[in-house]
């Protein structure tokens, strides 16, 4: 009888190859090909009596899976009103962004409501965690600490403490005894995560796992890690800014496009319920080259500010510098401005940026970028109470964007009195703010041009 031929599968994506290779030809992961036994045929499998009979969906009690608020409004917003008992949450982010600080505040708020939380750290000692907790004011008697890297020992701590919330910092540091592979490797991460997911589902303990990210910003480890957990959150932040964002990537219990805003300070991390004010700089008088916009980050509307500076130069190749914006869209707006508005920047340096470290890549910022360029080129300021929303096409037309009414409502809430929106917008706009609908770039320039210059044939 012929010996079954061994197969080689990628532990990251499951792709199968006929022989071992160093890099998976499907997902491109290095060192993920492992030898395994051929899959057995499923034909003729015998049925097994279920442990519990299937029930009608109407007989299932939905109250057992209702979300429990943590006590941090911005975190609860991203999770979907709170954390569900028995769920597993994966929080991934770059080193030093503040993951551990946020989770210490989480267990403190959780314990303050009379619940028990267990914080397991595999990267620090219990004393180091206690020092950071004292600095951030996250010390509570219902919070238990354990510095462990062995999975079996962690499960033993859970049996003794019986917490309702378990924090594992981080999943890459735990080791499952009896499982091949190095610590933090694909096989170990999968085994550890599978065991913790099984713990959560059988005991009802809510689990939050801290995960590392790769150089590309993706969650480190096998792709199946994100499939095993219920919620995947990305913790983002710029080392040059104190603003931090928790962004939902996957959520089985709520929307997956929510964003929570936090601010990193010396005494810990604090939630920012109204981040729009961070991205707008107040000037005593209106200045040229500055235009307000409203960007959608997930389901949240945030008012920001775009600034542009055009400066004459004798250089053969004028410099183009962009910060916080899509450089390709800024270049496109320069071309459209020259073609359809007569604003030439061929002999000028162009600088475009956002205020406060805000990052905007959506097309709805096109109109604000164009108006900022035109304002700087003509040295004519645009009123600081005006906000511009719209996508600009290559023919100079202004296209409508999503959630225009929500954007205008946010601008009105912050005191803006004039909103320029695309002419094709059919949403009902809020009352109390002047709305100007424009269909072409020329209409947009007329809407912001001072009345004394509207009769002058000039680019601005």
Automatic annotation (TrEMBL):
Keywords from the named record: ATP-binding, DNA damage, DNA repair, DNA-binding, Hydrolase, Metal-binding, Nucleotide-binding, Stress response, Zinc, Zinc-finger
Transmembrane region(s): none
Annotated protein name in UniProt: DNA repair protein RadA
Organismal lineage: Bacteria, Bacillati, Actinomycetota, Actinomycetes, Mycobacteriales
Ranges of residues in domain RecA family profile: 64-213
Family under the similarity heading: Belongs to the RecA family. RadA subfamily.
Organism: Gordonia humi
Example GO biological process: recombinational repair
Motif placement: RadA KNRFG motif: 250-254
GO MF, one example: zinc ion binding
SMART domains associated with the record: AAA (SM00382)
GO annotation, cellular component aspect: cytosol
Binding site for ATP: 93-100
The protein's role, per its UniProt record: DNA-dependent ATPase involved in processing of recombination intermediates, plays a role in repairing DNA breaks. Stimulates the branch migration of RecA-mediated strand transfer reactions, allowing the 3' invading strand to extend heteroduplex DNA faster. Binds ssDNA in the presence of ADP but not other nucleotides, has ATPase activity that is stimulated by ssDNA and various branched DNA structures, but inhibited by SSB. Does not have RecA's homology-searching function. Plays a role in repairing double-strand DNA breaks, probably involving stabilizing or processing branched DNA or blocked replication forks.
Domain notes: The middle region has homology to RecA with ATPase motifs including the RadA KNRFG motif, while the C-terminus is homologous to Lon protease.
Residue span of region Lon-protease-like: 349-460
Family matches, as InterPro entries: AAA+_ATPase, DNA_repair_RadA, P-loop_NTPase, RecA_ATP-bd, Ribosomal_Su5_D2-typ_SF, Ribsml_uS5_D2-typ_fold_subgr, Rubredoxin_2
Cited SUPFAM superfamilies: P-loop containing nucleoside triphosphate hydrolases, Ribosomal protein S5 domain 2-like
Gene3D superfamilies noted in UniProt: 3.30.230.10, P-loop containing nucleotide triphosphate hydrolases (3.40.50.300)
HAMAP family linked: RadA_bact
PANTHER family linked to this entry: DNA REPAIR PROTEIN RADA (PTHR32472), DNA REPAIR PROTEIN RADA-LIKE PROTEIN (PTHR32472:SF10)
């Amino acid at each position: 009888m012929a010996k079954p031929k061994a197969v080689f599968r990628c532990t990251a994506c499951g792709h199968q190859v006929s022989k071992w290779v160093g890099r998976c030809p499907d997902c491109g992961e290095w060192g993920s090909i492992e030898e395994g036994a051929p899959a057995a045929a499923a034909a003729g499998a015998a049925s097994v009596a279920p442990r519990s009979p299937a029930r009608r969906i109407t007989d299932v009690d939905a109250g057992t899976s209702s979300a429990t608020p943590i006590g941090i409004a911005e975190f609860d917003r991203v999770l979907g009103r709170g954390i569900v008992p028995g769920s597993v949450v994966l929080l991934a982010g770059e080193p030093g962004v503040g993951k551990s600080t946020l989770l210490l505040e989480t267990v403190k708020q959780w314990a303050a409501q009379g619940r028990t939380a267990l914080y397991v750290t595999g990267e620090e000692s219990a004393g180091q965690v206690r020092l950071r907790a004292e600095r951030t004011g996250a010390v509570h008697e219902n919070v238990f600490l354990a510095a462990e890297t062995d999975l079996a020992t962690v499960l033993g701590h859970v049996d003794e403490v019986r917490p309702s919330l378990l924090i594992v910092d981080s999943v890459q540091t735990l080791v499952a005894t009896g499982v091949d592979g190095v610590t933090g490797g694909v096989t170990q991460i999968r085994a550890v995560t599978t065991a913790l997911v099984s713990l959560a589902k059988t005991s009802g303990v809510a689990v939050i796992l801290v995960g590392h990210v790769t150089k590309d910003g993706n969650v480190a480890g096998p792709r199946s890690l994100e499939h095993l957990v219920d919620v995947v959150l990305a913790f983002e932040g710029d080392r040059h800014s104190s603003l931090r964002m928790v962004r939902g990537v996957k959520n089985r219990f709520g929307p997956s496009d929510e964003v929570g805003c936090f601010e990193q300070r010396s005494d810990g991390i604090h939630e920012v319920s109204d981040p729009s004010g961070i991205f707008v700089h107040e000037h005593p008088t209106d200045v040229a080259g500055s235009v307000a916009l409203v960007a959608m980050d997930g389901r949240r509307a945030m008012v920001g500010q775009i600034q542009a500076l055009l400066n004459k130069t004798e250089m053969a190749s004028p410099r183009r510098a962009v910060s916080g914006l899509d450089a390709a869209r800024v270049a496109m707006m320069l071309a459209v401005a020259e073609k359809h508005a007569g604003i030439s920047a061929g002999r000028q340096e162009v600088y475009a940026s956002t205020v406060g470290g805000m990052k905007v890549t959506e097309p709805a910022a096109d109109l604000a970028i164009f108006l900022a360029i035109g304002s700087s080129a003509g040295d004519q300021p645009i009123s600081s109470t005006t906000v511009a929303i719209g996508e600009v096409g290559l023919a100079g037309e202004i296209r409508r964007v999503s959630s225009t009414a929500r954007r205008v409502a946010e601008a009105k809430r912050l005191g803006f009195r004039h909103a320029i929106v695309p002419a094709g917008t059919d949403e009902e706009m809020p009352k109390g703010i002047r709305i100007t609908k424009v269909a072409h770039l020329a209409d947009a320039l007329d809407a912001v041009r001072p009345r004394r210059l509207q009769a002058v044939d000039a680019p601005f």
